[in-house]
Each structure stands twice: as C-alpha cells, then as structure tokens.
Amino acid sequence: MILKKIFLCLTLMLVAGEAMYARSPMAVDSIIAQRMHERNIPVLDGNSVKFFTSGHDKFVDLFDAIRNAKSSIHLEYFNFRNDSIAGLLFKLLGQKVREGVEVRAMYDAFGNLSNNSPISNEMHDSIRMEGINLIKFDPVRFPWVNHIIPRDHRKIVVIDGKIAYTGGMNVADYYITGIKGIGDWNDLHMRIEGPAVEELQKVFCDMWAKVTGEFLVEQKYFPRLQDEGYSRMSIINRAPGNTSDAIRDLYVTMIDNAHFTIRIINPYFVPTHRVRAALKRAVDRGVRVEIILSEKGDIPMTPQASHYVGNNLMKRGAVVYLFRGGFHHTKMMIVDDVCCTVGSANLDARSLRCDYEINALILDKEVTQELVGHFERQKESSYLMYRGWYSHQSIKNRFSGWLGNLLTPVL
C-alpha cells in the first residue's frame, strides 16, 4: 500500500512537472529557434546588444564608432533628412574618406521625397564630390505611381564589418528636438557586435549589388568575428521574393507560441489578417496582450486606423494604452519576457507585404528584460483605452479609423 502511494505521488509529480514545462516560457525560445532553422535563418550565439531609446544617445555612439572606423562604413537608410544631424554625419563621413576609409551609403528615393526636408539633387552631388559613394534606391520618375512599392525601409549601418546598428531610427534632427505639434519623437535603435553583424553586412551587400552591380565579397568586408557577448540572435530580412513573408512569419510564430504575455509598441498598428488573427487567438487562450499606441500620429489617418484596431482588440480582451508623450516610432515586440524583436518593420501591410525591411530577433532573457523595463516606463506616459473611449471620439476620427481599417492592404 505504501509503495502504491509513493508510486502515485511520483506519477503525479511527473505529470505536474511535464505540464509546467509545457507552459514554461523557455519553450518559446526553442520553438522560435526551430522555426528559424526551418527557414534557413541562422541563429547565432555570442553577440552583444546595446539599446538606444533616444536619438541623442544613438547618434553619439554611432558618430564615435564612425570616427574609429579603419576600413569601411556602410549605411542603408530610408531617408537622410536635410538638416543639421545629417550635415554632421556627411561631414564626418567625408573626413573618413580622406583618411582612406571606404564609405558607401544609400537611401530610398521615395523615402527622401516623403519628408519635408529632402536631400536635393545638388546636395546629393556635393556629397558624392566628397568621395562618399552615395546612391538612391529606385529613383522616382514619371509615372511615379510605378515606384510606390516596394521601397527600402531598412536602417542599417555596418562599420569595418565588426559593428552594426539597426532599428527604427532614420537620420533627422527631430530624433533629438522633437516635432512641433507632436512633441518628442520616441524610437528604439540598437548596436550589435558579434557573429550577427555578418548577417547585416550580407543584407547591405546584397542590396548594394542589386542597385549598383558592385559585388562586395572581399574578406575585408567579412572579417572573422569573435564572440562579443552571450546573446543569441537572428537577423530577419524581408525582401520581395524568397524572404517576402519572413518578418510576418516571425510575428505570427512569436504570437502563436506565447504562453503568458505579449507586449507591443508599434507606430502604424494596422496588422495584416494573419497577424491580427494571431493576436485574437492569443487573447482568446488567456495570454495577456498589452499594446502601446501613439495618441498622435505623423501621417494622416494612421493613428485613427490604429485606434480602431486597438479598440476592437481591447473589447476582445487586450490591454491597450495610448501614449501621450509625443509620437512613438518604436517597432518592438516582447513575448513571455524571454525573447523579443526590434527592427524597421511596422505592423502594417507595407512593411509585412511590400517593402524591404530588417528585424533582429533576440533570444536572450537578460536583454529582453531591458525592453520589458522600457515598456513599463512608456506606460507611465500613457493612459488606458477604456470601454467607451472610442465612442467618445469625433465622428471625423471614427470615420477615418473605419476607412483606414478598410484600406489595411495599402496602408
């Protein structure tokens, strides 16, 4: 009888242990890593990650790394705004050229025209005269409608093949000064050292070859990289063709395998059907889904469309906050507090179906905890979207939200 009781207790403990393991957040890391392997996306150990939550900190660190460059500097941005910070950047890059460093930079032609202080043709030519190999991706020509998509929305810098930067920040003064009528421009960027840098270098070199026909394959661009930390990472590249659904699949995989929590900050939150359906499934199975949306926006209709989607998810059970500390251009998602993704991809159809984008997947609990803390601090400048909040908005805003949701495939 005693043996039977001991056997029964051991059996119950084993079953309970298996159940706890099945719901352990550590399982999320393994599932996502396995998905990356299935897609032939390398999962690389030995990386260090440093986050920047202000434009000032990002540019100070980036400029310092550029000053110390010895061989090559590669930049790929959606746009360089024609203002003081870009002027300082190109002045510094010109100095590095005179020191014998190769400098290649590209920006998206449509992205340039979409800001209110674009690089003019004269400025472009003057920068090239400094020895900086500056090019436009897909120049917009008549009929311009043929050049709306796909656009190069990535933000990548690689220095000497050893240090990389990526995230949501372009090059503009408003990352430091803010924007009149909107307030502070909040965003998230990161510096990476270690084996993952090579993946970002490959993305840049592939795009450079596509646009210029110059193939950068020499070893000096791909030096042997040592482990610089303990973070496990993947670089998720979205390009039309073979990797066109890579970032969308990443989001869905992370959401579908969350056990406890999902935290999202995204500026243009009008998810495609697959992502929206995954979020609904997560809420329905009891996952706490928290989303921070900006109260204000920089593009007409997009904040109202985000609020419309957020309101529907809130009514289903998600917790939605409205950020009132300016505009949040951050693109990040955290799952179960153990893994996260940061990058250039918005949760909208343009980023997930059309444009060239880049995201970093970080499978590291300690690094992820930094973003958890950042998320919690953003809530201090936000307020809860409550039931009935949306119905109190103006008829104009509600109509814009409805129309924006209807136009999800093209937003």
Could you explain the architecture of this structure?
The protein is an alpha/beta fold. It has a single domain (27-410), classed as Endonuclease, Chain A (2-Layer Sandwich), CATH 3.30.870. It is built from 14 helices and 17 strands. It has helices at 2-22, 26-38, 55-67, 84-98, 109-114, 121-129, 174-177, 196-212, 246-256, 273-284, 302-316, 349-354, 365-379, 395-406, and strands spanning 44-52, 72-77, 102-108, 133-137, 156-159, 163-167, 185-186, 189-193, 231-238, 261-265, 288-294, 319-323, 327-328, 332-335, 339-343, 357-362, 382-384. The strands form two sheets. It has a 15-stranded mixed β-sheet with strand order 4-3-2-5-6-8-1-9-16-15-14-10-11-12-17, with helices on both faces. Strand 2 (72-77), helix 4 and strand 3 (102-108) form a beta-alpha-beta unit.
Short key terms for the protein model shown above:
411 residues, two-stranded parallel ribbon, alpha/beta, 21% strand, Endonuclease, Chain A, 15-stranded mixed sheet, 41% helix
Tell me the structural class: alpha/beta
Round the Cα radius of gyration to an integer and report it.
23 Å
Strand order within the widest sheet? 4-3-2-5-6-8-1-9-16-15-14-10-11-12-17
* CA(first)-CA(last) distance: 69 Å
| Basic shape | globular
Q: Please give the number of β-strands.
A: 17
The low-confidence parts are: 1-26
Beta-strand percentage range: 15-25%
Describe the largest sheet: 15 strands, mixed
